[in-house]
Amino acid sequence: xxxxxxxxxxxxxxxxxxxxxxxxxxxxxxxxxxxxxxxxxxxxxxxxxxxxxxxxxxxxxxxxxxxxxxxxxxxxxxxxxxxxxxxxxxxxxxxxxxxxxxxxxxxxxxxxxxxxxxxxxxxxxxxxxxxxxxxxxxxxxxxxxxxxxxxxxxxxxxxxxxxxxxxxxxxxxxxxxxxxxxxxxxxxxxxxxxxxxxxxxxxxxxxxxxxxxxxxxxxxxxxxxxxxxxxxxxxxxxxxxxxxxxxxxxxxxxxxxxxxxxxxxxxxxxxxxxxxxxxxxxxxxxxxxxxxxxxxxxxxxxxxxxxxxxxxxxxxxxxxxxxxxxxxxxxxxxxxxxxxxxxxxxxxxxxxxxxxxxxxxxxxxxxxxxxxxxxxxxxxxxxxxxxxxxxxxxxxxxxxxxxxxxxxxxxxxxxxxxxxxxxxxxxxxxxxxxxxxxxxxxxxxxxxxxxxxxxxxxxxxxxxxxxx
Length: 468
Ligand SMILES: [Zn+2]
What we know:
Layout: H1 3-11, H2 16-23, E1 33-36, E2 44-47, E3 58-59, E4 64-65, H3 66-84, E5 89-92, H4 98-108, E6 126-129, H5 135-155, H6 163-169, E7 178-183, H7 185-190, H8 194-200, E8 208-215, E9 224-228, E10 230-234, H9 254-269, E11 274-284, E12 295-298, E13 304-307, H10 314-325, E14 332-337, H11 341-347, E15 352-356, H12 359-372, E16 376-378, H13 383-390, E17 397-398, H14 407-416, E18 425-429, E19 435-436, E20 446-447, H15 452-463
Parallel strand pairs: 5-6, 9-11, 9-14, 10-11, 13-17, 14-18, 15-16
Antiparallel strand pairs: 1-2, 3-4, 7-8, 8-11, 12-13, 15-18, 19-20
Helix pairs in contact: 3-4, 4-5, 5-9, 8-10, 9-15, 10-14, 12-15, 13-14
This protein binds zinc ion.
């Protein structure tokens, strides 16, 4: 029993130990039992098992800290059980992993129902930590709030979150030193971002380029650049997608949403890190001015691209954003994008795919994923795939590979053409983890906001090193 558990037991009149025994829940993970009438202070108590004690450490084969993951799952099942019986205020026993406990509780209660009638919405639940909100509890709650912000942005309908509305929704945050700059179409043209503009051509909604910066480590420290794909709706363009499930393409700005979530949480936490975010925002639509298969466009670094498939648009907007992001002389650069269906074929929803030219940066991201439970898996960035992108009839590069298979790898090879060789760079393909059904038990159903917490931890770790 932790000290907090002992105190909690006292507040329950010393009943906790006997309840645990007679309810027979010891070892059973996340099966809440609701107990009524124990004390006046807590009229309803959810008791939840944390799993076997053997599961309390890092599982190397699974690349996860199973103990923390069990806490997230158990606390989530407890707070949702209490919400479902109309509790409006829940006090959570923090366990020995207070941060994971706060994450599980706050992530589980997220819902997107603001467009529904009031009677059909989830009732708000106020959360607090037994024994007072500790620093670790607060940290977990803020990390979860970053991910929840990403989920809300991803879930929002595309007509409620156009490129313009997305950029306007990121107001300056005075308390947390977060600066916002919104660039318009004329600026994008003037910077020579021809690949980005070619994607927005088919839509009546003008593109935007959003820049966020957070300085928590002083002016001298080189920042981490975070780039997020912000296609607020992806119809596929002239290479139109099938109608089935096309509605989920409102979340094709998942990379942008997670980027905002990372900076928001970093700023709220006062992280000792300098972060710069670069977010190209546009719609991919088949309007009469839309880019056509076979068109050739010129990216910011002068490379020409033959666009043979207009649905491979994420790499086009990222190409220019990656070029521009390097102007801030970052210590490292990470981009997140719902880039390819192929990454979903390879990994399912178990992990995001990571392509990187830096093994040191990879180890840091992997360690972050083990800790947060939101895992990452390294994929190859080989010349084999670059060759497939360079076999192009009219231009330097084609936007789809000439070979069949390996679609996530050829997309990564394409992006690498726009990154300096000596810059540690990580491309994170998040298409496979975009949506949560029941795979992650502590995330409610809907858009996932993954891997916001992992990238946040990575940002903290990499910014603690001296400048490169
Ligand atoms: Zn697409």
